[in-house]
# Entry
Amino acid sequence: MNRRRILILYYSHTGQTERVLQVIADALRAAPHEVDMRRLNPVKDFRFPWSPLALVGLMVRTYAGAKLSVELEALPPEVLAGPYDLVIIGHQPWFLTPSVPVNAFLDGPASAVLRGHKVVSVITTRKQWKRSYQIFEQKVRARGAEVVDSFVIDDPAPQPMNMVTTVFYLLTGRTLDRGPLKKIFPPVGIGEDGLRQARQFGERLSVRLAGGEI
# Structure
């Protein structure tokens, strides 16, 4: 089996994206491929839970098309030096655009690490991800890289329940699927079934990498 070198870059605000990528990384390492997993760390990270004012402010500015960015901690020189056989980027939509830290990476000098590489997109979402992905793909292509595959895993709860549970979770850090409301509101997040899908994706990706399909 051909052992490949893989870089995983991601931003995870609540930890869900990180859990998904860790499952994928474990499947790749079992192959065994070499995996270097790095979080895109804002110098001043976003607070969780959010304050209502901060959440509404971000939503309004995003819909208005305002340029939003953060300063990221520098990636280590050994990461920037590469090269890698594949780069996996874990991201999520924030109000129909890639999250601010992922946008900051794609718009910043560290995105040079992508040049000449094949990229796999891993999206964790609570619905409404297509516009965000289109923006992501355009920026990756502009950095001289190619998106060769995309894995989307979303919260299975239907709308509008999903919107209610997500907003409550972001503002409080708690879920509504407990106590007297558990019969009304579904759990927040992708759950165990989502992690199972992530593991299967990682296993399929391992086979494709070993076989030279990617």
About this structure: The two ends are 14 Å apart (CA to CA).
